[in-house]
Design brief:
Layout lengths: L2 H4 E6 L20 E2 L3 E2 L2 H9 L4 E6 L4 H10 L9 E6 L13 H7 L1 H4 L6 E6 L2 E3 L3 H11 L3 E9 L8 E4 L5 E5 L5 H6 L4 H7 L8 E12 H7 L7 H9 L5 E5 L4 E3 L3 H10 L27 E3 L2 E7 L4 E3 L2 E7 L4 E2 L4 E7 L8 H10 L5 E2 L4 E7 L4 E2 L4 E3 L6 E2 L5 E3 L2 E4 L4 E2 L6
Parallel strand pairs: 1-4, 1-6, 4-5, 8-12, 14-16, 15-17, 16-18, 17-19, 19-21, 20-22, 21-23, 21-26, 22-27
Antiparallel strand pairs: 2-3, 6-11, 7-13, 8-11, 9-10, 9-11, 24-25, 25-26
C-alpha cells in the first residue's frame, strides 16, 4: 500500500487556547494567523501533503467558524486521489453530551469516522507547532522497529524542558519511561540521555545534558490505538502513553530539525519575529516542501519612502513614509505616514475598506483599519482588523502583565491589541 492508503492523519485542534489568549478570543488555536499570510493549521496539513498523506481529520471544538472558512477555501483535492481535510467538531451523541475531555477522548469519540477508510496507521499531530517534517521517515521507522506506538521527540537541553513530556529511552530508542511535564529536578535528571545517545545525536548544546522531549506527534498501529482507547482515559501524554509502557512496544523517533511549540503568546511572538532574521530558523522558502495556504489573489504590497530593516511584509499591504525595524506585517496591513514600528507583529486585515466606509469612519471619528499617522509601537502584536488612530504610542517598557485601556493586554511581556479593537487617536500605553 502507498503512504496515502496506509496512513490516516488526525490533527488536534486543542482546547480553549487559554495560554494564547487574547489571540484565541474569537478563533481556535489552529486558526491563529502565522508568518504574515498563513494559519497555524497550515503547518501540519502541509507536512502531511508533502509526505504523501492526503486523508486528514481535524478535531476541534472552540470558535471553529474562522477555521472552517479557511479550510473550505484552501484545501481542495481532486476526486481521483481520495484526499480530504475534514473538520470533526465535538458533537452530542447518544453516549456523549459534553465536550472533548482531552486529546485521547477526542480521538476516541471519532474512531467511528476513521473506520470508514482503510488504513494501517494513525498519525496524530498537534495543531499549534512550527516545524517541517517528512512523516514518511517516522512511518518507515515505525514499521521497521515493529513498534505499536512511535513518538516523535526532540533533544532538549535539561535546563529548557519545563512544560514538556520527557521520555527515557534505551540505546535502540525503545521507550523505557515517560513522564508528562515533570517539575522535580531529580526526576528530570533521571530522564537525561545516556552518554552513548548524547554522542550519537550530537545535541545542539554541547556541555549540557539533554532529554528527549515529546513533540506530541504519535504513530499508532490501528489495532493498538483502538485497544489503547478502550477505557475512559482523557489524555495521551498524561495517561495513555504511560499506561502502555510494559504492555506495548513503544519507540522514539528523534527529530533534529527546527521545532517550536507555539502554545503561548511569547512563543508565538518570538517565532514570528524570528522569521524576519537574515537566516530564519524556519525556512518558508523551501520549494521542495512548500507550506500551503489560501490563495487570496491580492495585489503586491506598496512601500512608499520607508526605512525598513529586517521586516517581512504580507501581500496587499500599504506602508507610507514610516520606519519599520525587526517586524512582521500580515496581509492587507496599513501603516500610515510618520509611524515607527520595532519588534511588532501586525496581522493585517480580512478586507479592504470601501471609500464609503472610510467617509463613515471620518464622520464617526473612528480610525480606519490599520495604523494611523505618527504612531510609535514597540514590542506588540496587533491582531487582525484592529483600528489604531493617529499619534498612538504603545510599548511594554516598564509595564507588567495585565489589562490596559481600550482592550489592550500585556501577556508574557508582550503587548496585544486584540482582533477588531479600536485604539483612539492620542492614546499612550
Amino acid at each position: 500500500m502507498s503512504t496515502q492508503k496506509k496512513v490516516m492523519a488526525v490533527i488536534m485542534g486543542g482546547g480553549r487556547g487559554t495560554r494564547l489568549h487574547p489571540l484565541t478570543m474569537e478563533r481556535c488555536k489552529p486558526a491563529v494567523p502565522l508568518a504574515g499570510k498563513y494559519r497555524l493549521v497550515d503547518i501540519p496539513i502541509s507536512n502531511c501533503i508533502n509526505s504523501d498523506i492526503n486523508r486528514i481529520f481535524l478535531l476541534t471544538q472552540f470558535h471553529t467558524a474562522s477555521l472552517h472558512r479557511h479550510i473550505q477555501s484552501t484545501y481542495h483535492f481532486d476526486p481521483f486521489g481520495g484526499g480530504f481535510v475534514d473538520i470533526l467538531s465535538a458533537e452530542q451523541t447518544e453516549k456523549n453530551a459534553d465536550w472533548y475531555q482531552g486529546t485521547a477522548d477526542a480521538v476516541r469519540r471519532n474512531l467511528q469516522h476513521f473506520r470508514n477508510f482503510p488504513h494501517d496507521y494513525v498519525l496524530i499531530l498537534s495543531g499549534d507547532q512550527l516545524y517541517r517534517m517528512d512523516f514518511r521517515k517516522i512511518i518507515a521507522e515505525h514499521a521497521a522497529s515493529g513498534a505499536d506506538v512511535t513518538i516523535a521527540a526532540v533533544p532538549f537541553p535539561k535546563s529548557k524542558v519545563e512544560g514538556l513530556g520527557l521520555m527515557k529511552v534505551r540505546d535502540d530508542l525503545s521507550i523505557e519511561r515517560f513522564v508528562e511535564k515533570p517539575k522535580d529536578p531529580a526526576i528530570i535528571d533521571s530522564l537525561t540521555l545516556s552518554p552513548a545517545l548524547e554522542a550519537k545525536l550530537q545535541a545542539s548544546s554541547p556541555g549540557e545534558q539533554h532529554c528527549l522531549a515529546s513533540m506530541g506527534i504519535y504513530v499508532f498501529n490501528r489495532a493498538a490505538l483502538t485497544e489503547a482507547l478502550d477505557n475512559r482515559m482523557a489524555d495521551f501524554g498524561k495517561e495513555i502513553i504511560p499506561g502502555l509502557l510494559g504492555r506495548k512496544k513503544l519507540f522514539a523517533h528523534v527529530f533534529e530539525g527546527y521545532w517550536e511549540d507555539i502554545g503561548t503568546v511569547r512563543a508565538f511572538f518570538d517565532a514570528n519575529l524570528a522569521l524576519a532574521q537574515p537566516l530564519p530558523p524556519f525556512n518558508f522558502f523551501d520549494a521542495g516542501a512548500p507550506i500551503y495556504t489560501q490563495d487570496r489573489y491580492l495585489p503586491a504590497s506598496k512601500i512608499n519612502k520607508c526605512s525598513i530593516d529586517y521586516v517581512v511584509i504580507g501581500d496587499g499591504s500599504i506602508v507610507e513614509d514610516s520606519s519599520l525595524k525587526h517586524s512582521l506585517l500580515g496581509i492587507r496591513s496599513f501603516v500610515r505616514e510618520g509611524s515607527q514600528l520595532e519588534d511588532v507583529v501586525m496581522m493585517g486585515a480580512d478586507y479592504y475598506e470601501t471609500e464609503e466606509e472610510i467617509r463613515t469612519n471620518a464622520k464617526l471619528g473612528r480610525p480606519n483599519l490599520g495604523l494611523g499617522n505618527n504612531c510609535r509601537i514597540k514590542g506588540a502584536i496587533i491582531d487582525k482588523n484592529a483600528r489604531i488612530g493617529d499619534n498612538v504610542t504603545l510599548s511594554t517598557e516598564g509595564k507588567a502583565d495585565g489589562e490596559y485601556a481600550h482592550g489592550v493586554v500585556i501577556r508574557d511581556g508582550v503587548m496585544v491589541v486584540p482582533k477588531g479593537m479600536i485604539v483612539p487617536s492620542g492614546t499612550v500605553i
